[in-house]
Amino acid sequence: MISQILFLLVTAAAAGLFAFQLRKVRQNIQLGRPLDRSDQPGERWKTMALVAFGQQKMFKRFTPAFLHAIVYVSFLVINIEVLEIVIDGIFGSHRILGQFSGPLYDVLMVVNEWLALLVIVACVIFMIRRNILKVKRFDGVEMEESKGTITRRNYSHLDANIILVTEIVLMAALFAFNVADIQLHALGAGALQSIDNLPGTFPVSSIFADMQLFGTNPHTLHLIERIGWWGHIVGIFLFLNYLPISKHFHIIMAFPNTYFSKLEPKGELDSPKNIHEEVKAAFDFNYQPVEDPNGPKRFGAKDITDLTWKSLMDAYTCTECGRCTSVCPANTTGKKLSPRKIVMDVRDRMEEASKYKLVPNEEGLLVPSDDSIEGAAEAAQHTLLGEHYITNEELLACTTCNACTEACPVNIDQVTIITEMRRYLIMEESSMPEEWGIMTQNIENNGAPWAMPAADRFNWAMDIDKIESNEKVSE
Amino acid sequence: MSEKIQVPVMADKVAAGQNPEYLFWVGCAGSFDSRYQRVTQAFVQILDAVGIDYAVLGPEETCTGDPAKRSGNEFLFQMQAIQNIEVMNMYEVKKIITACPHCFNTIKNEYPALGGNYEVIHHSSFLQELIDSGKVKMSGGGEFKGKKITYHDSCYLGRANNIYEAPRKVLEALDADLAEMKRCRTKGLCCGAGGAQMFKEAEKGKKEVNIERMDDVLETKAQIVAAACPFCMTMLSDGVKHAEKETEIEVLDLAEIVAKNMDA
Questions:
Q1: Choosing among B33, B71, B182, B210, which should be mutated to test the A contact, i.e. which has the most A CBs within 10 A?
Q2: The complex's ipTM?
Q3: Of A268, A422, A465, the CB nearest to B72
Q4: Tens digits of per-residue pLDDT, B138-192?
Q5: Which of A327, A435, A461 sits opposite B201 (nearest CB)?
Q6: What are the strands, taking DSSP E only, across chain B?
Q7: What is the pTM of this model?
């Protein structure tokens, strides 16, 4: 009875804390501008099914995709057992699914055990890849721990290692639970477990149980069995609440983020309405531009409040895998631009705004809502664009080639963020490389990006021979 | 003396009461870049030989606004777009062919929001259709027979608009030896010129993107690099020069390859 109450308390605390954290993330994402992504629900479900559920884009690189698929499938399957643990925890039952599902439970346990073992193997390989082999795409300025201030997540590798170790520990707890349970029943001490016959078939744990891994003392075995059981479920609760401050949050965010993917062709950039109003006014001096009170406050993006909620959701979905940066033509030729850094900076700026309780003012700029918070005034001085986060040099290096968006396994759209920020640079600050200034003038004056007179535009057509079949043959 | 082609201009056609089926959108590079003018001419030779009912805007054409938009100058982009849309709508243009993937992407995807709705066809798809329908017949032999050709994917055709096969189908119609670069199709490496990079120096780095791409080209041992974009053409040609391979590697546009090899 006591353990049931304890279990309920732990579960409620975990769920409550997680709900609180989700609410905070939601609030942060809502700092973004409105964007309508309610169209084409069929296509959206399909995209989510393929990209998030089906891991479609992971398989562009087979080895990590295969290992990742093991962990992912295990996550889905072992969750069935977590359901059992929760029911047992609440009602004080033991392996409740086993009481009802008979042979199905055998199948579930066999699959679970092999998957759990494979997860441990996969996590070990992942750790070797990251820490010993040092796979190149896990490298980069945004991955360095020394880079950040307190408001930034500067613990990508630590984060990854925490996740991998936790996963190994969770699986180990599951095995401890199974092994001790089998040993208890083999000793005929099942009475300690409220059931006489242990349901299920355990191909991995029975090997260790046969070796009497945990000795023969029924009370010790019972203790280990309980530690395994509690360890697994408490571990999962801790893990759940670690997610929102981790790159591992993608296991949840990948689903909404792929659902709300950009469905237009990758090459298409939007034409913001506020700019269109200005252009109409430029063509017609009598035209009064229509101002949308909920529309963008400026041209392009200076801070996270100028980006759409989808770009902000992108940032919370990022797994920091570096597939984007590893295929970026600018990054791979040594330029400062790293699409992963752009996305991580957006997230870090959101976290900063959240930590210091910054809220948008009438101009959409983030200002302190509570002056008593130390550092809030300073945090309000930062913007996404600028030395603290993303610099002009990074933005200017983008070729808009969409290699990053193509590579991203969770459909993040880095090019939209970069373009929005370029819009701010050029249209609000008139800050651009000299050559782009010349290009702009040429387009304005000659209708071409080069300094060529419009009158010469048709000169190419003056002297073109017809193709002649006879000539062709004789060639 | 061979006969010269009179390139039809939309204003003249419409004034004469005719309504050409296609507008051939030449683009700034196709109009002014001396290298890409040759591609424009080759494509016009094909249109003429097949008897396509087309016209160009001639002096009435201006920049689509693509480089302005990609650089972040949305204002200038929309100014350009609205002017072009006005002209094309005035001529009741329905179908547009262009050899420039940047013009293609902009007119196809970004003009509709500003009132320009057209069927836009890139010349690679158009050439493929001409070959598939038998209107263009490739001669069996020709100068490409047995030559090693590799195709460089333009980002604005490939990833931006999912056109990967049409250019390859065109090349398959030749009696040539096609080789893929290790980074191709969805994984194709940018030439370095997109996003208005064509019009400025690259940011500080270790290497130019087109030099990086040249390594992929050299690895295939191709004698011809086929391109389908004026910016790629410039970047690849510079890459070949940088590698000092001008005598061994030729960069050609699909239209030039077809014009050289078709039976008229």
A1: B71
A2: 0.96
A3: A422
A4: 887 788 999 999 999 999 999 999 999 999 999 999 989 999 999 999 999 999 9
A5: A435
A6: 22-25, 54-55, 95-98, 119-122, 137-138, 148-151, 177-179, 224-227, 250-253, 262-263
A7: 0.96
